[in-house]
Write a structure and sequence with these properties.
By secondary structure, this protein is mostly helical. The chain contains 10 helices and no strands. Helix content is 70%, strand content 0%. The protein is globular and about 55 Å long.
């Protein structure tokens, strides 16, 4: 399906789908079961259980999410200037993945928890990319479905080492939720993607922590959630570098 008319029609559909997905972020977040937003076996707070308390304000967040996800769809769909099955698959999977990243980032920022249920959504988004990965070679020469497997091992494995080192020293460096998040993102983004995201998130969180210490916002023993930085960098990667990487792998 090619041509200006097809591209215009598809763009209109993209905008509508992106806006709908963006508006649903606040709606879904405010209705997440309380038990999903606390550790296993922990009793949810009264605030979480109160159905009348809005965990996330509708304005301006729903409109920001709607605009962002609409732009994401428009970015992913055209591919090399044409509407293709690959572009449609990438758009659907990218939209689902970034939608989940937004909710995970907000949850970790507000409640210091990464809901496993939304990490599973990332894995579902990765399943949607299986057909594309199966027929491509990454820029680093990783072939086929080895790409998501390599991303899982790099993202999850590296974080397991860090978390394990913290457990041995009896000092929590990062939570196991971060391990699962990086593993899920690794399956979706592949090794190159999760490697780029982890480096960017580490630099961003380190800079934010340093600035917070200088301003007196944080103490030296305060815990700063890594999830918001991972999810922000992951969403930015999907919007910027991921389409170019997949274009090189798929269309050339």
């Amino acid at each position: 399906m090619n041509g200006i008319a097809a591209l215009t029609a598809a763009s209109a559909v993209c905008i509508a789908v992106g806006i709908t997905a963006g508006l649903s972020v606040v709606y879904v977040f405010n209705r997440i079961p309380p038990s999903w937003l606390c550790d296993y076996g922990e009793e949810p707070s009264q605030e979480l259980k109160d159905p009348h308390v809005k965990r996330l304000k509708e304005n301006p967040w729903r409109w920001l999410c709607a605009a962002g996800l609409a732009c994401l769809c428009l970015r992913l769909l055209p591919g090399m200037g044409e509407i293709t099955l690959t572009g449609i698959q990438m758009t659907a999977s990218g939209l689902v993945a970034v939608w989940a990243m937004i909710i995970i980032g907000i949850a970790d920022k507000k409640y210091m928890i990464i809901p496993d249920q939304f990490v599973l959504v990332l894995v579902v988004a990765a399943v949607g990319m299986a057909g594309i990965y199966r027929n491509t070679v990454s820029p680093l020469g990783i072939e086929g479905l080895i790409q998501p497997l390599a991303g899982l091992l790099l993202g999850g494995g590296f974080m397991v080492i860090i978390a394990g080192a913290g457990a041995l020293t009896k000092k929590e460096i990062l939570g196991w939720g971060d391990v699962k998040l990086c593993a899920g993102m690794g399956v979706f983004l592949g090794a190159e993607g999760i490697g780029t995201v982890m480096i960017a998130a580490s630099l961003a969180s380190g800079a934010a922590a340093a600035a917070g210490l200088i301003r007196g916002k944080y103490g030296k023993d305060d815990s700063i959630p890594l999830g918001p930085y991972l999810c922000t960098c992951g969403a930015l990667y999907v919007f910027t570098l991921w389409p170019m990487t997949m274009q090189m792998e798929t269309w050339i």
